[in-house]
Amino acid sequence: MYTSLTNRRSFIKKMAIMSAMTAAATMFPGILFADEQEKNLPKGGNLDWKKTPCRFCGVGCGVLVGIENGKAVAVKGDPNSPVNKGLCCVKGYHSVIALYGKDRLTKPLIKKNGRYVETSMKEALDLIASKMKETIADYGKDAVSIYGSGQWTIPDGYVASKLFKGCIGTNNIEANARLCMASAVTGFMTSFGIDEPMGCYEDIDYANVFVLWGNNMAEMHPVLFSRLLDQRLKRGVKIIDFATRTTRTSMAADKSIIFKPQTDLAVANAICYEIIKNGWVNKAFVEKHCNFSKGLTEMGYGMEDNYQFNDKPENISFEDFKGFLNDYTPEKVEKISGVSAKDIKYMAAHYGNPNTKVMSLWCMGPNQHTRGTWMNNLIYNIHLLTGKISTPGNSPFSLTGQPSACGTVREVGTLTHKLPHGVVMNEEHRKHAAEIWNVPVENIPSKPTYHTVEMFRALDRGDIRFMWIQVTNPMVTMPKLKRYRDATKKEGRFIVVSDVYPTPTTDIADVILPSAMWIEREGMYGNSERRTQYFEKMIEPSGEAMSDTWQLVEVAKRLGFEKQFHYKEETHIEEIYNEYRRHHEGKKHAMAPLDVLKSQPGAQWPYVDGKSTQWRFNAEYDPACSNGEKFHFYGKPDGKAVIWQRPYEPAPEEPDTEYPFWLCTGRVVEHWHTGSMTRRIPVLHKAMPHAYVELNPGQAKEMQIKTGDRVKISSRRGEIILPASVNERGVPERNQVFVPFFDENMLINDVTLDAFCPISKQPDYKKCAVKVEKA
Fold first, then answer.
1. Catalytic residue at 402?
2. Where is substrate bound in this sequence (predicted)?
3. Any catalytic annotation for residue 91?
């Protein structure tokens, strides 16, 4: 399963040395990691150091990879990167080992008579193209689909969108970022009319207070969290952890505030109530730069097939909004949320203090939420009411989970409703894309088809017959997993999977394509702060592995789209990126030229007049501002942001007498998502070899369960048995349990619910009702 380099012991020793922690890390082992010193790097040989963004999370750390004799043998943080400034986390330092697992997929495989048979890449690509043609002929163009990833490179996602939307003529393209960042997108779009954060990581250097909304940042974004701790040492900043369970982030924070699941909505409204009550509203900012709106409520949770929802925004006044908040006094919300009125007022006072700069940071907690769009809106409400936005240190900042969830999904537009520069519903956007793609505008459908959950439901129903899955592992990550796993096995379905290792998803494939991984090919990622980063091909791919980009190009040509996919193999990445940049021309979203990306550790869009834009909507920093005012929220026609009236509503499934516990799922610092890469890194696998269920210590004692005991977790959808974890890494509240989802041998998503936010269509993996029993 693991790397089998001839100098394996030496290699692992080198990597272990390079993951030495800072002295500060002794407080929280495994979380903070130092930039290694040159003396600790491999000696001898001729290491050729090349820059790249890290392969893992959305932070987008810059790393330097040491190449020796055609192999990647060392990693160090790039001291020139403004993202991580030479730091790396444990996954980053060990990233190159993931290239060399002994079970790498190196040859195409076709399922024949129930068994996988090795074949040539040509035969596999021919078969894929013929099956696509056959499916379209028999069932129509909307019977074929592609499901990609926030781990796709920008060129991967771009050619996928061009092929399916522009050439085939179906909007059946989705990416797994729908499962992790869709609510962030709809939050930005509804509040500002344009996507992605207005700030940047440099806000960390200016903020006085950091409020972490349901975000275990110490484990999920450890390098950024180390920057927060560094600022506390230097400037005495405060870190407030607002969460449903005690984590390593809570232990490192200045204050930990625990709330009941789903009630973050109520607490955010209570903070707004306090801001208004105490006269902390920045009246000049709000009057000049904000509107007030409300939308539909009680809109359901998307659990039925073909669920449809169309919000109907309605303008309201400040007085209307103020009146709405009377139901959210701290004292009333204390009864709902379990958060004391004193703590609500404490948080509100930091936001309301005109002399305090506040940075709000969040990730999956508010996003994987059946009211995820609303929760994003509410955090923006707090910043807009106080005018603490788009200035250094005042920043509502949504963190991403995957290396290019922003760059490849949100910017390229690999969701059913999106285009690289807009949406399929807009005729001008379709015309613009059609011109660049060299296709008739009629080719691009004007209506979205299926978001991720509905796409797999359509596969189950038979509306979709062909699905190509690239760079993701949905047979581990889909909620209510058994339904969708069973769907893939139904007669008349044809599944193609492109990946680097065997996974539960390759297990259900009819064709498996071996993919070139990361630095075995050329590409770009886009990180959380709008930074596009380039990496070159550094080593040869394993066996016959081919980049996902070129797999798609080869199939496109076989489908008859040679004119649109005229790229040359040796220069296709440059050609594709230059074509892609045409979609984003203009001061609001211009992308940096490729030579700039090659010469430095990335560039932030909008890239205008040779300069990255760090703070958007602020005329001092953003050349797209054109209203003559200090702030211009140009995503909206009138240049104003929206403060939304969004109520608290309960979760679709809450604990009851039969299923009395809340289940929350998430990640761990050692493993990347489903573990298909990191579990092939020996030191990471040994550090965290399997999943577990965290129990509240008091309840564990009552149930006579101790660490390591087998525990059965069951819901209305399925059950799973895991070892218990009591008083170890995280500590849940009473009647709550937590399970990480990285372990393919313990599929917690057989238990989870496929309810989603009706606006973003993002599922809620953080809240469903379960029963807990000693097994």
1. yes
2. 741
3. yes
Q: Do the annotations mark residue 54 as ligand-binding?
A: yes
CATH of domain 198-303+315-399+639-645: 3.40.228.10
Per the residue annotation, which of 364, 517, 546, 688 is the catalytic one? 364
CATH code 3.40.50.720 for 109-180+404-588: no
> What pLDDT, on the 0 to 100 scale, is given for residue 42?
55
pLDDT at 43: 52
Share of residues in the chain with pLDDT > 90 (%):
93
| Residue 180 annotated to the active site | yes
Q: Which of 387, 401, 523, 675 is catalytic?
A: 401
Q: Which residue has the tokens 């760090």?
A: 614
Residue 310 confidence (pLDDT): 86
* Distance in angstroms (rounded) separating the CA atoms of residues 729 and 754: 27
- Enter the pTM of the model: 0.94
Is 669 annotated as ligand-binding?
yes
**Residue 421 assigned ligand-binding role:** no
The pLDDT tens digits of the residues spanning 104-152 come to 999 999 999 999 999 999 999 999 999 999 999 999 999 999 999 999 9
Question: Where in the chain are all domains bearing CATH 3.40.228.10?
Answer: 198-303+315-399+639-645
**386 known ligand binder:** no
- State the Cα–Cα distance between residues 263 and 245, nearest whole angstrom: 13
Query: Rounded to whole angstroms, how far apart are CA atoms 457 and 474?
Result: 13
Active-site residue, selected from the candidate residues 91, 131, 162, 588: 91
Tell whether residue 61 is among the known ligand binding residues.
yes
Task: Tell me: is residue 674 an annotated ligand-binding position.
Answer: yes
Pick the catalytic residue from 15, 18, 88, 181: 181
Q: Which fold has domain 661-752?
A: Barwin-like endoglucanases (2.40.40)
What is the predicted pLDDT for the residue at 486? 96
Distance of alpha carbon 506 from alpha carbon 493, whole angstroms: 14
What does the alpha-carbon distance between residue 207 and residue 230 come to, in Å, rounded to a whole number? 12
Q: Which residues lie closer than 8 Å to 27 by C-beta, 6 or more apart?
A: 251, 252
Catalytic (active site) residue 62: no
